[in-house]
Write the structure tokens for this entry.
Amino acid sequence: MAEPRAYEADHEKQVLNLVNDIPSRDDSAQYESDTWFTPDEQKKILRRVDRRLVVTVGVLYCISLMDRTNLSSAAIAGMTLELKLDSLYGSVSRYSVVTLVFFTTYIVFQPPSTVIVRKIGPRIHLAAITTAWGAVMLGMGFVKSWQALAGLRVILGVLEAGFFPSCVYLLSTWYTRFEVGKRYSVFYVLGSLASGCAGILAYGLMQMHGLQGKAGWRWIFIIEGVLTMVLGVAGYWFLVDFPDKAHMSWNFLNEREGKFIIDRVQKDRGDANPEPFSAAKFFRAGRDIKIWGYALIFFNTTTVTYALAYFLPIILTKNMHFSVGAAQCLVAPPFALAAIVMYATGWVGDKYHMRGSIICFNMLLCLIGLPIMGFHKSPAVRYFGVFLTTAGSNSNIPATMAYQANNIRGQWKRAFCSATLVGFGGIGGIAGGLVFRAQDAPNYHPGLYACIACCLLTLIVVALLSLGFYQQNSRADRGEVELETSDEDHQKGFRYTI
């Protein structure tokens, strides 16, 4: 009878080990942690991640977009007149210079950010830079010259450079390939809605004109700067780290739940485990032409979105002849439509494993909206064109992020791709700040032609990438190649998402 008792004791020990999260296994052996949780428990874990991660970075992105693009609201609230921003500096207006200098540092400091965030963690990195740029925004409310404003915009570019690529990279480490579309959409929806409502907020802050002897446009920067600093400090407590360190985040997942997240991502695409930093691996990704294709798509998209962000209130007043107050408020409704289109296309893309076709659909909305916006005789109909253009261009931001996230493998290749993607987005910001020139007012036809050209170029790039993906997938199906592998990575079965 000794042997059965020994067996029962050993079996009881194994059960207790499992319950206490001390599984008996060799550390190098892989195991399926999803067997530890029922399907309902798995859904609850993912919903918890959504609430804590997607909502938090989305709220911080709200304030990022507001702080980056509130120049247009301040411009029509008196800043242009007080700082003489309509005057030319060389061949461009001072207003365009102020918008453009932000992107010089915003682009240059993007690549180091994805390395830094992996080293020190997103909680410290994102919370610190958010608080710091809030202080810079506060300072903009006290500038006495356009040169001082431009200088603060340069510093703002340094700080904001680390935010967006770090968020894109962080989100991609938590979800499988066909979960990121909806999450990127929600992340950007929150930012877009805030960007749309920023005009209404700015109009309200303008009413503080004369308080403490300060102009209304100054209060836009002061109040939004204080709000950013508060959210930056709060972000430290609510942001979460990468999945392998999730248990270290305050009141979040335990180690067993974190391992469940890592295992499911590893099973999906094989790059969930963190890799030691290697400059060779990081920069070697630049040899992959696909990465530059994604970056070009993002450049085309952000050229249109930034053009709208920086000039839409101005276009509404000068081209469509709305009052300043009406223009500030009429910016919001198109972003509401953009939010609906954004989430709907993200949901469809995840459910039916579609990426490139979603991008093309969004660009077609722009190609319909831009001519209406620029050439119809009725201001009301032109405003309808603003809806289509805003919805299509802004929806393409998360669509492009999901497109590249689905078709890239490897931690440092993913980090490099996030940096180049958002870096080219910054270059698009420079282009967007230049397309609607003061000398082209009130019709701005050259700017409209430039935006239409960007949309057409996106369709061409997506068509070329899709053709290449189809050919590579066909070769992989025939066993001729293995896709997205390296010397250290031999996972089989990866296919590009078209």
